[in-house]
């Protein structure tokens, strides 16, 4: 039996107050009051339909948050069943206790569709209670069944406005469930389950064995876009058994589930209620009505006593709910379950809050529980809820879940999740980063020191008048002497925080120059210990190349922006000789430099420069406009000017628990160790007397904007000080209500975000110049929907919000302003900061020199993931220590990582988000086998070709917003093992190594028929793979030989057929041969994979020589799939990771290096790329996903050119940070 998977975050996030409050508890019937009971339920992504005991249908539109009521008219009788359908029109059918069936055609906002509500009635055929309803996919057929066994078929013609019902068949027992698909009606009764073919009018029973006992056992189709012959059925049986049958009723598999119930059934996490739900255990557990849910192999079963989700593939119970027999109805959508329980209690079970799409319908079970929702932070007052609830329109907002009011306060309950999650050994993966190196220079070194810091104007935050608490400002002085810090920390002092590292230096001698001053070679072969980390002392930024105008090329995608295409900054740390060398060396060889520079603008985009920390680890890293501040684990605070050259650390203070600075650097606070008292620095000096003002005691965390201070007390209370300046660094504090204990605050301008102790994110609404305190906290539902467990947050330049999570991933949101503090993005964008660049053995150093025209290098030494830094931070002996490992400012984004390292990205960054795509008309559980792309004959965009197996093929235009699939008929009795397409042809390779071609045209973009290709020239050669370009076709046979053909169309046999030209494969060891070849859509590239997963490229391909001249091996990684766009190459590694090749051009067909991209949804099992570099993937669960990207350009307008060029003589004077 399979091992039980990790616990799933399937739970009830919060009660559906907005829905229940819109349905009256009582109605007036003459002089008497009648209670309203809820009797039926159905749901989809657009509506929630609820039937009642008074014959009223309540239909809640989820898009516009509006409740509509529909009366059946006539006698008020209970509604017993409801069924929704969304197709061309929105339809809802209801059945009543007396046998009446009514269907409503709802009003549509689409042009040309129904503009008036219409109702159709089926009366007289059913004589008893209607128990089941089923729609056809197009809404033209409605099937209904009653408790006497009668099944009625109603032919619906919405255009003509008619509904013609007829009795389809009659069974001796009650109808339990109906489902319809591919002209087959699945009927479940209390005695057996049947398949009725409506076209052939034939009836087949599921299986041959009769049931041992009668009961309400249902059956359902497995959802998929398939033919009738491929239909599969799940049927419940007595004794906790589940059949899996085909469309002919033959049992293919019997799942015996009874052993799974010998252990405790994992329960859904329910919202606290006055009467606990789900605590009852039925004496006789049985399956009931069944349906497929969320994932292939997952079956949802329910009856009046229980609801279970069973993974039939792995033979485990995913979750369940057991009751005392009061479950009335259950309905499910793609990723949520609605349970009608008792008289009027509706529960929603899902893996994400309502209103947000599931962040991963296929892999959410791997990521562990989502962060606690605001509803879980409610006080126990939820137990006191009665029928006289407030008529709140929604409980998804924070104020409604908390019951905020100006006259009352709410209590907060303890959060169930632990403060910190366990970081396993798998998290300690390694990254490779670009690090600058120290140069030995002849001549006198200039001493480095701290710079003068200048204030910059910033948006101010004002505080509304509230009762103030008088707090004394106590001043005391301390005489501090200047102390220059050694670059190598004391290792012994790090034992108390379980911190150790190896600190080695790599020194590069002077470069060798030729007569023209051009850099010829710089051999750097450091002896690297495979077990250690290596820090390069005294780092500096590589000099950026002069701006240039390359030849016109295709417009780069959103992630292609050169971060080095700026003028060279002055830097005395490199010396005049090096600057002169770089500038003069470019002039005589401008043409050469244009060729040797990167051919695209994205070659070193998203580069992370590495620096060493000044002390014993990095607990907090704060960046202002002109300085970077670092707090180590010993409580020592260091400061350095921003590195246009090298970092020069100076110790600023000791015994510091936490440090906070305003974005401009004008305000500086510290929290003192042991006493946990906050002090504000009045006059910051490197030398001389330093004045500290006592601001507040019992302080756990401080966040500063340019004129306010947000303070978290050790008790968990939140305070605010306003009106701060250089002359008034602290003021009186006022208390601000907060929904739960906070661990960290980020403030910038008029935007405030908070991170709770349970890693939930909140933002403050209503901040303005008139109300600096703001109005209320709002819970960030986006973070919860993506399962983001943040550990550090920061607000940066250009209205950005940054978050670092427990797995070491960096995320950002944009458009975070005072008017819209939550930002304009509907999700977080991930930036990869680990395992980013895959370095190769040789050639990389010269590539970097050509790219930057400066003295820079790269080490292949691994740098540990950010998770290592987080783990060390949590093991600090100070339990209230909150690490701040991410900071963002005008100088870039700074991340503390490794053991005593931090990294900065000064250029543009690209965020990645993988979006799940469900083609129209397919179920979310549809499992796709592969996807690939080709250009469209005439229209913009690309075609996506998808299949669920070798026997089907579908085509989708990626510009179609509804993603409607078109069926492509395959040749009869043919299984396609590979397909490849270009603009005018679709090629297919079947299981017998025969090639079929389908001509594509503007009038018929998916083609009309298949034509077999004559392969007589190849003799007994069996092709294994092929790839179509715009004009040429490449193929590879089973022995690894490569073939080339001009032309993609099948020609008339009477004409001379194009010849297959045999190309020698690359020289390989014995037993190794090519298995796959791929050409680009424009015929300019040819790449191949061999049987070991090694990558090869064909060089010398031109218009005059389309077959190329030689093969070249590409080192760096093992690949299991190659895909080519018009400009570059993407690979899928054996572990599912995705990497892209950078630097490819006509003159450099091999490119320069691989770079991995973030993949937060799931590691893909099949990859596709459009000609314009849009990436699609199929996850291991078979879901189709699309990669969305967003470029975050670096704003260089606030660069301070002189901050890093002060000489040591200037720094000998006393400088003050103002």
UniProtKB/TrEMBL annotation:
Top-level taxon of the source organism: Eukaryota
Chain intervals with Polar residues compositional bias: 1192-1203
Domain HPS5-like beta-propeller: 36-343
Region (Disordered): 367-420, 1192-1218
SMART domains: TECPR
GO CC annotation: cytoplasm
Comp. bias (Low complexity): 392-420
Matches recorded under InterPro entries: Beta-prop_HPS5-like, Beta-propeller_rpt_TECPR, Quinoprotein_ADH-like_sf, WD40/YVTN_repeat-like_dom_sf, WD40_repeat_dom_sf
One GO term of the biological process aspect: protein exit from endoplasmic reticulum
Amino acid composition bias (Acidic residues), ranges on this chain: 1209-1218
PANTHER family attached to this UniProt entry: RUBY-EYE2-LIKE PROTEIN, TECTONIN BETA-PROPELLER REPEAT-CONTAINING PROTEIN 2
Protein name: HPS5-like beta-propeller domain-containing protein
């Amino acid at each position: 039996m399979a091992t039980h998977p990790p616990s799933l975050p399937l739970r009830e996030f919060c009660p559906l107050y907005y829905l229940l409050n819109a349905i009256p508890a009582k109605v007036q019937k003459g002089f008497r009051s009648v209670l309203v009971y809820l009797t039926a339920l159905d749901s989809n992504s657009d509506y929630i339909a609820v039937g009642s005991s008074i014959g009223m249908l309540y239909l809640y539109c989820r898009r516009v948050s509006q409740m509509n009521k529909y009366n059946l008219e006539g006698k008020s009788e209970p509604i017993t069943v409801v069924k929704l359908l969304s197709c061309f029109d929105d339809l809802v059918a209801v059945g009543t206790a007396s046998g009446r069936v009514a269907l409503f055609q709802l009003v549509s906002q689409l042009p040309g569709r129904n503009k008036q509500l219409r109702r159709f009635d089926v009366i007289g055929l059913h004589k008893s209670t209607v128990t089941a309803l089923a729609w056809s996919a197009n809404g033209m057929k409605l099937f209904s069944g009653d408790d006497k066994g009668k099944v009625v078929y109603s032919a619906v013609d919405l255009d003509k406005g008619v509904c013609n019902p007829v009795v389809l068949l009659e069974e001796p027992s009650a109808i339990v469930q109906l489902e319809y698909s591919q002209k087959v009606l699945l009927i479940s009764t209390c005695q057996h389950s049947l398949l009725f073919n409506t076209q052939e009018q034939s009836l087949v029973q599921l299986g041959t064995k009769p049931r041992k006992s009668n009961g309400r056992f249902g059956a359902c189709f497995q959802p998929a876009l398939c033919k009738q012959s491929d239909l599969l059925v799940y049927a419940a049986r007595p004794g906790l058994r589940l059949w899996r049958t085909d469309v002919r009723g033959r049992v293919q598999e019997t799942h015996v589930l009874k052993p799974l119930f010998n252990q405790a059934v994992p329960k859904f996490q329910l919202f606290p209620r006055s009467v606990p739900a789900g605590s009852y255990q039925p004496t006789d557990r049985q399956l009931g009505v069944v349906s497929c849910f969320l994932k292939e192999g997952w079956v949802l079963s329910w009856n009046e006593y229980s609801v279970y989700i069973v993974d039939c593939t792995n033979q485990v119970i995913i979750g369940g709910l057991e009751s005392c027999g009061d479950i009335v109805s259950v309905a499910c959508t793609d990723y949520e379950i609605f349970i009608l329980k008792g008289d009027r209690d509706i529960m929603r079970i899902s893996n994400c809050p309502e209103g947000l799409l599931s962040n991963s319908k296929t892999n959410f079970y791997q990521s562990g529980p989502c962060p606690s929702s605001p509803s879980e932070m409610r006080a126990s007052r939820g137990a006191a809820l009665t029928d006289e609830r407030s008529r709140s329109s929604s409980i998804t907002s924070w104020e409604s879940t908390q019951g905020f009011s100006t006259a009352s306060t709410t209590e907060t309950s303890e959060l169930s999740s632990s403060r910190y999650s366990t970081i396993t050994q798998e998290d300690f993966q390694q990254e490779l980063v670009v690090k600058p190196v120290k140069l030995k220079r002849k001549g006198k070194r200039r001493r480095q020191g701290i710079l003068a810091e200048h204030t910059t104007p910033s948006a101010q935050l004002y505080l509304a008048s509230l009762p103030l608490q008088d707090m004394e400002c106590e001043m005391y002085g301390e005489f501090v002497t200047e102390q220059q810090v050694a670059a190598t920390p004391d290792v012994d002092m790090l034992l108390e925080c379980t911190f150790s590292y190896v600190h080695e230096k790599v020194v590069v001698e002077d470069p060798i120059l030729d007569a023209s001053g051009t850099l010829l070679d710089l051999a750097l072969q450091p002896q690297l210990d495979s077990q250690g980390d290596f820090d390069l002392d005294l780092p500096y930024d590589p000099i950026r190349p002069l701006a240039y105008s390359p030849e016109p090329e295709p417009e780069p995608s959103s992630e292609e922006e050169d971060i080095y295409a700026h003028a060279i900054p002055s830097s005395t740390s490199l010396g005049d000789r090096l600057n002169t060398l770089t500038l003069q060396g470019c002039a005589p060889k401008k043409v050469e430099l244009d060729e040797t520079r990167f051919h695209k603008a994205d070659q070193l985009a998203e580069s992370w420069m590495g620096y060493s920390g000044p002390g014993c680890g990095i607990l907090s890293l704060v960046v202002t406009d002109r300085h970077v501040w670092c707090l180590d684990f010993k409580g020592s605070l260091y400061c350095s000017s921003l590195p246009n050259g090298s970092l020069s650390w100076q110790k600023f203070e000791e015994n510091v628990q936490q440090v906070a600075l305003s974005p401009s650097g004008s305000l500086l606070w510290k929290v003192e160790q042991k006493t946990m008292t906050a002090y504000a620095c009045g006059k910051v000096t490197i030398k001389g007397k330093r004045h500290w003002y006592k601001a507040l005691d019992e302080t756990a965390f401080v966040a500063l904007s340019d004129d306010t201070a947000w303070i978290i007390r050790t008790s968990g209370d939140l305070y605010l000080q306003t009106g701060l300046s250089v002359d008034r660094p602290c003021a009186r504090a006022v208390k601000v209500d907060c929904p739960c204990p906070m661990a960290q605050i980020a403030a910038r301008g008029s935007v405030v975000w908070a991170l709770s102790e349970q890693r939930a994110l909140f933002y403050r609404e209503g901040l303005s110049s008139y109300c600096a305190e703001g109005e209320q906290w709002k819970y960030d539902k986006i973070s919860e929907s993506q399962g983001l467990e943040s550990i550090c947050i920061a607000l940066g330049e250009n209205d950005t919000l940054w978050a670092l999570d427990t797995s070491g991933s960096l995320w950002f949101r944009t458009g975070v302003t005072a008017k819209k503090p939550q930002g304009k993005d509907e999700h977080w964008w991930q930036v990869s900061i680990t395992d980013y660049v895959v370095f190769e053995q040789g050639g990389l150093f010269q590539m970097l020199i050509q790219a930057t025209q400066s003295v820079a290098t790269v080490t292949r030494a691994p740098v540990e993931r950010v998770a290592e830094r987080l783990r060390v931070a949590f093991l600090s002996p100070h339990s209230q220590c909150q690490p701040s490992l991410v900071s963002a400012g005008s100088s870039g984004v700074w991340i503390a990582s490794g053991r005593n390292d931090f990294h900065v990205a000064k250029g543009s960054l690209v965020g990645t988000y993988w979006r799940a795509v469900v083609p129209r008309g397919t179920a979310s559980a549809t499992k796709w086998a592969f996807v690939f792309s080709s250009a469209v004959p005439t229209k913009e965009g690309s075609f996506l070709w998808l299949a669920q197996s070798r026997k089907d093929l579908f085509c989708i235009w990626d510009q179609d917003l509804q993603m409607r699939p078109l069926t492509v008929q395959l040749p009869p009795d043919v299984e396609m093992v590979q397909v490849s397409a270009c603009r005018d042809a679709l090629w297919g390779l079947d299981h017998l190594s025969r090639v079929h071609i389908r001509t594509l045209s503007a009038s018929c973009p998916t083609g009309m028929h298949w034509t077999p290709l004559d392969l007589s020239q190849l003799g007994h050669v069996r092709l294994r793979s092929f790839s179509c370009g715009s004009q040429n076709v490449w193929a590879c046979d089973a022995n690894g030989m490569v073939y080339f053909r001009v032309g993609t169309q099948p020609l008339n046999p009477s004409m001379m057929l194009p010849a297959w030209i045999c190309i020698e494969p690359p020289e390989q060891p014995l037993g190794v041969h090519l298995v796959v070849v791929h050409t680009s859509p424009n015929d300019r590239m040819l790449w191949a994979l061999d049987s070991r997963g090694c990558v090869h490229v064909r060089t010398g391909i031109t218009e005059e020589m389309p077959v190329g001249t030689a093969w070249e091996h590409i080192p760096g990684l093992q690949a299991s799939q190659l895909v080519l766009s018009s400009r570059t190459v993407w690979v899928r590694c054996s572990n599912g990771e995705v990497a892209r090749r950078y630097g490819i051009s006509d003159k450099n067909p091999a490119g320069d290096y691989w770079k991995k991209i973030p993949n937060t949804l799931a590691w893909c099992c099949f990859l596709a790329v459009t000609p314009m570099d849009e990436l699609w993937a199929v996850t291991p669960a078979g879901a189709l996903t699309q990669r969305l990207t967003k470029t975050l350009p670096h704003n260089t307008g606030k660069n301070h050119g002189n901050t890093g060029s002060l000489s040591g003589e200037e720094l000998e004077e006393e400088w003050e940070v103002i």
